[in-house]
Amino acid sequence: MSAKYISRISLRSISLCSILLLLLASPVFAGTGTFGSYIGVDDGGGNTFYGASQPGSNFLTAFDGHGLGTYTVGDSLLLSGAELLTWKSDGGDVTGAFVSYNVHLNSASAGTFNTVNVSWTSNSPLNDAAGNTFSGSGDQKWANINLTPDLMSGLGAGSYEVEVYFMATTNEGDRYSNNGGSNYVATFDVNAAPSGVPEPAALLMAFAGLLSLVAFSRRRR
């Protein structure tokens, strides 16, 4: 075997070793991510949390596939709470959290999503909405929602879906809690408002008409 051929093999070996060392020196796994999320809804009785991505042994009613109820045009149904659990390690940093939602008829596709900021609440150790405790060194909870939009604003009678997903911004790119890309989808129905109560003037006119009919009937006798 010639020295030139041996030299080529050595150079190739060195190159492969260098590539392997670079790969080992670089983080194989991301240093940021999400590991839990919850959605809060208020129909007038106070905030109720539902589970989106539930990480612990304590579970809440799942938001995805849940029927939120039947309402009437003019009622309110608030997105009253949002909670996102994140983690970071190896130089990763989570810089923000958001919840996005869209309301549409069951027979239609989701259009543009509205996004609400969810502010940082606490570092580890922390308790989530279901009462689970987490103590990983980089665990964080984001749960201060800065708006409580009315999911029924402007809606008419019909059957609706509300789709929700979460996003965390990090120094490594965005991280999502979105049910594998399908989002978390709950349903609710809206009935038409009942017929309005007659105005006092209309009642007086009807009463006057009734009196006239009674008087006319008596005269005919």
Structure, explained:
Strands 1, 2, 3, 4, 5, 6, 9, 10, 11 and 12 form a 10-stranded mixed β-sheet that branches. Strands 7-8 form a two-stranded antiparallel ribbon. It has 221 residues and is an alpha+beta fold. It has a single domain (32-191), classed as Coagulation Factor XIII, Chain A, domain 1. It has 2 helices and 12 strands; from the N terminus they run αββββββββββββα.
Structural class: alpha+beta
Top CATH class: Mainly Beta
How many domains? The number is 1
How would you spell out the order of helices and strands? Answer: HEEEEEEEEEEEEH
Please indicate the percent range of residues in DSSP E strands (runs of 2 or more).
35-45%
Mean pLDDT: 86
The number of distinct β-strands equals: 12
Largest sheet: 10 strands, mixed
Number of helices: 2
Q: Unreliable segments (pLDDT under 50, ≥5 consecutive)?
A: 4-11, 19-27
CATH topological fold name = Coagulation Factor XIII, Chain A, domain 1
Radius of gyration: 30 Å
- Percent helix: 10-25%
What is the overall silhouette?
Answer: elongated
Query: Which architecture does the CATH hierarchy give at level 2?
Result: Distorted Sandwich
N-C termini distance: 136 Å
